[in-house]
Amino acid sequence: MEVDELVCLPRLPRVAVCGGTHGNELSGVYLVRELLKMEKKVTKEEEEEEEEEEDERVSVLMVLSNPRAMLQCRRYVDTDLNRCFTRATLNGPVSDVAPYEITRALELNRMLGPKGSPAAVDLVCDLHNTTANMGLCLIAYSDCDWICLHIFKHLQREMPDVPIRFIHFDVSSKESYSLDSVGKHGFAMEIGPQPHGVVRSNVYTAMRVGVQNMLDWVRFFNSGTIFEGGFVEVFSMVKHIDYPRDRETRTITAAIHPQLQDRDFCLLHPGDPLFQTFSGETLPYKGKEPLYPFFINECAYYEKGIALSLARKRRVMIPSIRVQTEHEQESYVQEFTSEEEE
Predict the structure, then answer these.
(1) Helix (H, G, I), strand (E, B), or coil: what is residue 27?
(2) What is the reported pLDDT for 341?
(3) What are the helix (H) ranges across the chain?
(4) Phi/psi at 161 (nearest 5 deg)?
(5) Which of 34, 51, 101, 190 is labelled catalytic?
(6) Which of 209, 245, 277, 301 has CB atoms 3.0–4.6 Å from 306's, for a disulfide?
(7) Does the annotation flag 22 for ligand binding?
(8) How far is CA 248 from CA 135, 245, 252, 253, 306, in A?
(9) Does the annotation count 48 as an active-site position?
(10) Contacts of 203 (CB under 8 A, 6+ apart)
(11) What is 102-134 written as a DSSP string?
């Protein structure tokens, strides 16, 4: 790819901001509630101003994703909603006794999708909290989605006091499982550390500012602003590591080592302390290469058998982009439809 290449992409007229996919991750819950309240306070003058700026306008749909889990302040009621958006799940049969989150996933797919179709919303931003010391992260399934990567670059520029990183999960569109995969573009905005069931003002504020900057970027893009390309750092997930466990009972026998705790995105070398057993023994990292840990000691991942995840850091070159003209948009829609039919 040439550094000065200019890529033209379709407008983003419809954006969804989702909170409460996990009912006890409260920054997103309270932020979406606040955005819904603000939406009701739009004045007549503001409506007229938006009509005058037709090209910049973006329809923002605020969604409280898992209402039942939110009421109970639990991650989920029956099963993890953010694992229910694979093509197989969304297109499979549903019985009368299906878990609540499966039913809710189908509702959200009808509301925001259908996944993989031209009717899907243009961008999904799904809001999450982590107990890990990760700062603000955008998590996406593609490392060549120029929309998501440019939003990431914009947030880094506009929020210099907040550590912001881009995490890439190399999963196909068919197997992508989270709510953000329903949109044409999408990412999870993950911010921590924050205990589940708690809202911390500084974490909430970082999420609010991040969402506002994301929406500002979309408006700038839709109005014809050219965004210059360049290099960005991407953390590509390599593998998960489970806790040491008793062979018979499968209960954990060690915790994250104190020298590793809270050191998300600090390079972990072979031989570095990884776990400390409950009898006091240090267990080293036995990997063959240095990697970057993240989601270290995430509370919600104990049940998933994940003590931490490991990633490689890469530099990715992203092109300059601008919004397509109407003629270019028509050609893109025809191409997108043909690809989906295949």
Answers:
(1) helix
(2) 57
(3) 26-40, 44-52, 67-72, 87-91, 100-112, 146-158, 201-222, 326-341
(4) -90, -5
(5) 190
(6) 301
(7) yes
(8) 37, 9, 11, 12, 19
(9) no
(10) 27, 129, 191, 192, 193, 194
(11) HHHHHHHHHHH--TTSTTS-SEEEEEEE-SSS-
The closest alpha carbon to 105, from 32, 197, 18, belongs to 18
Q: Could you give the CA distance from residue 315 to residue 19 in angstroms, rounded to a whole number?
A: 30
Q: Are 9 and 40 in contact (CB under 8 A)?
A: no
The phi and psi torsions of 328 (rounded to 5 degrees) equal: -65, -35
Phi, psi (5° rounding) for residue 103? Answer: -60, -40
In three-state secondary structure terms, 10 is: coil
212 band by pLDDT with thresholds 50, 70 and 90: very high
Residue-wise burial string across 306-321, b where 16 or more C-beta atoms lie within 10 A, e elsewhere = bbbbbbeeeeeebbbb
269 has binding-site annotation = no
| Tokens describing residue 136 | 């603000």
Q: Provide the β-strand partners of residue 268.
A: 291
pTM: 0.92
In this predicted model, what pLDDT tens digit does every residue of 38-96 receive, in sequence order?
887 764 445 555 554 555 679 999 999 999 999 999 999 999 999 999 999 999 988 88
Alpha-carbon span 45 to 124, nearest angstrom: 28
133's CB contacts (< 8 A; 6+ apart) are 192, 193, 262, 263, 264, 296
Only one residue has tokens 């972990």, namely: 268
Other C-beta atoms closer than 10 Å to the C-beta of 292 total 21
The structural domains of the chain, ordered by start, are: 6-229+319-341 (3.40.630.10), 238-310 (2.20.25.160)
Helix axes 26-40, 201-222, angle to 10 degrees: 50
Tens-digit pLDDT profile for residues 62-73: 999 999 999 999
Q: How far apart are CA 110 and CA 60, in angstroms?
A: 17
25 is in an annotated binding site: yes
- Model pLDDT for residues 263-290, shown as the tens digit of each residue: 999 999 999 999 999 999 999 999 999 9
